[in-house]
Amino acid sequence: MRFGVLVFAAAAAGVLAAEGGNANQNSLKPLDSHLFHSLNKISPPIVLPDQTRALYTTSRYDPKKNKSFSFLSLLDTVSGESTQLTPEMEGERISSPMWLNENTAGYVFKGALYQHNLQPNINGTLFYNTTVGISSATYRATTGQLFFLADVYSDGNINSVAGYKEKEKNRTDSAQVFDNLWARHWNKWMTPVKANLFSVKVPLAENGGLGQAAREVNLMQGLAPSVDPLLRWEAEGYAVSNDGQHAAYVVRSPSPDLSWSTNVDIYLVPCNGSGQPELLTEAYKGAASNPVFSADGSALAWLQMETPGYESDIRRIFVRNITTGQTHSVARDWDLSPHFMIWSADSSVLYTLVQSKGDSKVVTVNVLTGARAELTGSGYIASIARLGTDRLLAVYTNTTETHDIYTIDVNSVGAPMRRLTQANREKLHDVYLGEAEDFWFAGARNEQVHGWMVRPHGFNASQKYPLALLIHGGPQQANGHAFGYAQWNPNMYASAGFVTVQINFHGSPGYGQNFTDSIRQQWGGLPYEDLMKGVDHVIATYGFIDAQRLVALGGSFGGYMANWLNANTDRFSALVAHDGEFNLISGYYSTDELWFAEHDIGGVPFTANGRPNYERFNPERLAAKFKTPTLFVHGASDFRLSLEQSLAPWTLLRRRGIPARLVYFENEDHWINHAGNSVRWYSEVLGWISQWTTSPPAPSHG
Q: Are 432 and 29 in contact (CB under 8 A)?
């Protein structure tokens, strides 16, 4: 299906017509869970060097078959027409779309690289394969070099992996022995297998056949040996210069303090493996990220946190001259924290993405002066790529629109964005998607706090409706004006009949670094006050909210806050705590990243100075005050907050005779990653909050 190009003009270059909300909302159907999970999701586009075409992938889930599918598409950036290149592939998602030359695309599927001749609806042919699967791949057509990540053992050799695995298979025991912390991270136990960055020459064959690969070069081989094979170097990301001469990769130093250090470094290395890796970030013990080479390869920029142990420190922009080695920091007066950036064609400007008051905006930064200008306004720019000298190819979304590809004119601030794709127009044309209505109120410290509301499906101003308060995680994260595909999309709750409220409490990014930093040692203080005052504000402002039918839901820190609400207020009819924290002290001893608690809560709980900080806002300390019916959800492989953090409060409520339910996912971690499980998640959560708020609609008084 092809759609013509649409151009949307707005004062802030971001207010776009909704996919499902333009008609009379009473004629629109609600967004149900099966439709929601079947929506098409597109990847960031990869632009051909001639700037007229781009590749992107689309993935979707089929609830009836309980299977996922993906395919590769070609986008004409001039006409806006998309052509599906591959049939729908079942199972593992197509990834790493790339250009092998101007007439040949490449993509990774099930760990191997395939080439495609751009003819519609045909499978690609195998181009490069190894004895181990590859991921995060990119290609430099001018040099015939392929770059990728692959999991290898301590010798760093792809070809020896099979032998190591055979030895593992023939072991007579299953013991895992750990001498250093970070025995596990997120959802996996540490093993000797680590992702390393490789380069290999694989020139494209004239007949389109399998490329004749040279020997793979491990670009991390020059790093110092690790004393613990379980804590070896592992690549967390990388960039390659356009000419294929240099690579920069992101790694954690494998020291015994991994679990309480945020020191993440960037190394620069020749792509042919002829030189030793050069450490660029030795002066800083915070986390470095997002290395990106200038178009001509003469400079490397990256984002750098400078405060050790603080994972939500402001990111500063650093630029290094590759030839001279001179490095300088740019725009240090900026009080917002960019999270992604690319270079302009002439290497004079960096196009950054930054969160600002619920939006994700494109902001230009002059690399010499630090001068900045916003290119976009309301809504959420999820990714950007350079399209020639004067345009960007962006993936944009907002509360009522799923992710689609647009072009942005970089020479005209506030100019309209030009829409190239409409991934879900057919699926959502008759579906209600409520717009986010922003509000501000005086929160903690009498400071202005931002939130927004989505009205329920079938809204009638003469009736009153229950309110669902969605509490974000982090806590140094923020709700955004974006269409999310996971568990906290406000329109899923609005379609279930709830006025849905989201509040960016103290600690949220996008409102200045001081606002983000303010949550330190205030977990149950400032955010709690913000949430209570925010609920008071919307009830007083909007007469259609039933103050007797309130529910609150959150995951991670939001789950912690649900427990804290249970201990401190009885105004909510029901709560939902997804992978939340109940006991800050036992949570410290069982989590994977100690730096988080040590910075945010303050110190360590085994000292006289630190213990009071953990007790002050510890929900378990107030267990006797828990009284609200609560649904607890937890994944078995969540190592950030272990299963006991939900088992304990569930046990507490059940033992005290208070209604409570535990939903346990054996194959999930901190998030719900499987679409079938997400369908069940929404069924349980919406069923729970509806159960405790069901009553005939009451007349409205405003």
A: yes
How far apart (Å, rounded) are the C-alpha atoms in residues 479 and 355? Answer: 10
Task: Compute CA 196 distance to the chain's CA centroid, rounded to the nearest angstrom.
Answer: 22
Indicate the DSSP class of residue 463.
B
CA-nearest of 233, 297, 236, 234 to 271 is: 297
Say which residue the tokens 């990014």 belong to.
Answer: 509
- Taking the C-alpha atoms of residue 86 and residue 101, their distance in angstroms, rounded to an integer, is 18
Helix (H), strand (E), coil (C) string for 531-597:
HHHHHHHHHHHCCCEEEEEEEEEEECHHHHHHHHHHHHCCCCCEEEEECCCCCHHHHHHHCCCHHHH
Rg of the chain, C-alpha, whole Å: 26
Give the rounded distance of the alpha carbon of 291 from its chain centre: 18
* Blockwise average pLDDT, block size 10, the chain, 702 residues: 35 41 72 97 94 96 96 97 97 96 95 96 95 96 95 95 94 94 94 96 73 86 89 95 97 91 97 93 96 97 97 98 96 98 97 98 97 96 96 98 97 87 97 98 98 97 97 97 97 98 98 98 98 98 97 98 98 98 98 97 98 98 98 98 98 98 98 97 98 65 38
Q: Nearest-CA neighbor of 638 among 698, 692, 591? A: 591
Q: Which two tokens stand for residue 34?
A: 């099966």
Strands, E, within 24-133: which ranges? 41-42, 46-47, 53-62, 67-76, 82-84, 89-90, 95-101, 104-109, 112-116, 125-128
How does DSSP classify residue 602?
A: I
> Are 269 and 275 within 8 A, CB to CB?
yes
**Which residues are within 8 A (CB) of 426 and not within 5 positions of it... i.e. 6 or more apart?**
1
Q: What is the pLDDT of residue 255?
A: 87
Amino acid at 376: T
- H or E element, residue 278: strand 278-279
φ, ψ at 61 (rounded to 5°):
-115, 140
Q: Which of these, 550, 425, 557, 422, lies nearest to 479 by C-alpha position?
A: 557
Rounded Cα gap, residues 187 and 665, in angstroms: 13
Residue 7's pLDDT is what?
37
Instruction: Work out the angle between the directed axes of helices 644-655 and 557-568 (0-180°, nearest 10).
Output: 20
Pairing of strands 349-356, 359-366: antiparallel
Characterize the bridge pairing of strands 89-90 and 67-76. Answer: antiparallel
Helix (H) or strand (E) holding 138: strand 134-140
Residue 540's φ and ψ, nearest 5 degrees, are: -70, -30
SS3 34: helix
Is the pTM for the entire model greater than 0.85?
Answer: yes
Which residues, 6+ apart, have CB-to-CB distance to 519 below 8 Å? Answer: 475, 476, 505, 506, 507, 526, 527, 600
CB 543 within 8 A of CB 467: no
**What are 56-96's pLDDT values in tens digits?**
999 999 999 999 999 999 999 999 999 999 999 999 999 99
Contacts of 177 (CB under 8 A, 6+ apart): none
At residue 209, the pLDDT reads 57
Q: At what angle do helices 526-541 and 557-568 cross, to 10 degrees?
A: 80
Decide: 409 and 351 in contact? Cβ < 8 Å.
Answer: no
From the centroid of its chain, how far is CA 517? 21
